[in-house]
Amino acid sequence: MENLLDNTQTTLVEYDESNIITLEGLEHVRLRPGMYIGKLGDGTYPDDGIYVLLKEVIDNSVDEFRMGIGKSIEVSIQEGCVTVRDYGRGIPLGKMVEAVSIMNTGGKYDSKAFKKSVGLNGVGVKAVNALSSFFEVESFRDGKTKRAIFEKGKLKSESKIEPCEEQGTGTITSFEPDNTLFEGFHFRDDFIEAMLRNYSYLNTGLTLIFNGKKISSRHGLLDLLNENNTSNPLYPIIHLKDEDIEIAFTHTDQYGEEYYSFVNGQHTTQGGTHQSAFKESIARTIKEFYNKNMEVADIRNGLIAAIAINVEEPTFESQTKTKLGSRDMSPKGGLSISKFINDFIKKEVDNYLHRTPETTDILYRKIQESESERKAISGVAKIARERAKKANLHNRKLRDCRIHLNDAKGNNLENSSIFITEGDSASGSITKSRDVNTQAVFSLRGKPLNCFGLTKKIVYENEEFNLLQAALNIEDGIEGLRYNKVIVATDADVDGMHIRLLLITFFLQFFPELIKKGHVYILQTPLFRVRNKKETRYCYSEEEKISAIKELSPAPEITRFKGLGEISPDEFKHFIGKNIRLDQVTLRKEDLVKELLDFYMGKNTMERQNFIIKNLVIEEDIA
Questions:
Q1: Judging by DSSP bridges, how do beta strands 170-177 and 162-163 pair with one another?
Q2: Residue pLDDT, tens place only, 85-96
Q3: All structural domains of the chain with their residue ranges
C-alpha cells in the first residue's frame, strides 16, 4: 500500500499560485476564439469565422441606420483586407480606442442611444480587433476625426483629435483576419452577397454597396420570399407589417415547412422563441378562420414564411446570435414575444383572409390535399415509425456519435455531422477513422430509389428512406435536425455520382429546407496517392497529381483510388479530420426546385442523362 501511494504521488502535477493566470485585454479572445465567433475556418463555409468578423462590423453600421442616421454602407474587400464605411454618428472620439479594444465597453448598454440593436454585449468589434493581424478604425464627428491602428488587439498608434475635411459623420473600419488563426483564408463573394441581401430585406431604405455593386430592397420580406427559391406560390405572397413586426408567407406545392426569421436585423438561422410563436399563431389563426377541425401539420405543409421582429435588448443563446432566447419584448418584462406575435397575426392575417376570398379558396384546397395525403399514408407511416423505432435500438445502418445539433446544451454542437455512405467497405473505413464524438455514419445498401415525382408515401414505404429520415430526425421539419452537416460520401465514379444525384433528389423532393439552409455537403476524397520513401501526398485532381509527381521524383509510387473502400482507415482519418474537404450543395437564386429536379431526374433520354453524369464527373475531377 505504501509503495502504491508513493507511485501515485509521483504522477501529480504541481499546482500552486503560479498556475493562476489572469488574461489581460483581448488575450482571452485569441485564446478561446470559439466562445466569441463560433469557429475559425478558412472561408470555405458561410458560418466560418471570417464572415462572423465581417458581420460584427456591419452590425454596428446597420444599428446606426436603424437609429435613423446614414442611408448607405460601403463594403470592400481587397486581397483579404476588409473595409466597411458607414455614415452614422461616428464613434465618440474621446472613447474611440476604448470602444474597439476594451471588453464590455460600448454605447449599446445605454438603451437611449441604441434601441433594438443587435450588438448588445460590448464584445463584437473587440473580437474582430483581437483576431485580426491588422485593424484600423477612423471616426468622423462634428468636423473632427481620430484614427487608431491595432495588431492582434494591441494598440500600435493613434492620432490626436484633429479637424478634417471629410463631409458628414460616420466610421471607417478596416481589418485583415489573422492568417495564423484563419489559415489560408479567403472570402467568397456569394456568401457575402447573401449576407448583405438579408440586411437589405430587413432594412428597407438602406443601400449596401459591395465592391461597387449596390444591394437594396424596396419591399422587405416580400422581396426575400420572391428571391429565395419560392417556386410556384399557390397564391400571392401575403405581406403584412406594423411597428416592430413584419411577416410574409405563402404556400407552395413542396413538402414540409420553411422559415426565415430575424431579430433586430439578425438572421436567426436556428429560430427561437419568435419563430416558434409564429408557427403556432399562424396555424391557430387559419384554423379559427375556417372554423374546422384541421390538423396543424396539414395547415403548415408547404408553408414558406418569413418573420422579423424588433426587441429591446434581445437575449441570444450564443455570441453568434443564431437563436433567440428572449421571451419578452423588453428586458423589463411586460408584453411577451409570443403574445405580441399572436395578437398581430390573429388580427392582421384574419382581416386579410376575410378580404381575399380567392386566396382563402386556394389555401383551403391546399389544406384539404395535405389532409387527404396524410390520411392516405397514415397507416404506412405508423408502421414505418414503429419499424424505425425498433431499428434505432440496434440500427446496423446508423453508427451514431455522441454530440448532436439538437442537444439541449453542450459545446461543439455545430460540428455534429453524419456521413451517408454506400457499401460496407466504405462505411467501415469511415467508421473506424471517424471522431466518435461528432461524426456519425449511415450506410446505404446499393443505389437508393429515384423518388422524383413520387409522393411522401414512398419515404415511409422505402426502408432506407424511412430509417434515414428517422436518423436525421426531420419527419416533422428540420428544427429537430440531429446533425449540422449531412455529408454524402460516395465514390468519385459514375455510380457514385448517380447515388449523389439520387440522394440530393430525395432531399430536394421531400426536405428542400435541408439544402436551402446549407446542411447538405459532398465529401471530397483523394483520387490519387503519390509517395516516395520520405513523403506521401494525397491528390484530389489530375493537376495535384502532376505537381506531386514532379516534387517527389524520381519515380514515386502512384496509386489510383477507385473507391472509398480501397482507402484504409489509417489513411481515411486524414480526409475527414481537420483538413476535411467538403462541397456544400447550394441552390442559386434563379434555381427553382421543381424545374431543377425535372431537368436532372425527369424522363430524359439516355443520351441526356449520360451527358449530365459525364459533365458532373469532369467538374469533380478538375475541382
A1: unpaired
A2: 999 988 888 888
A3: 27-215, 221-373, 395-525+562-621, 528-560
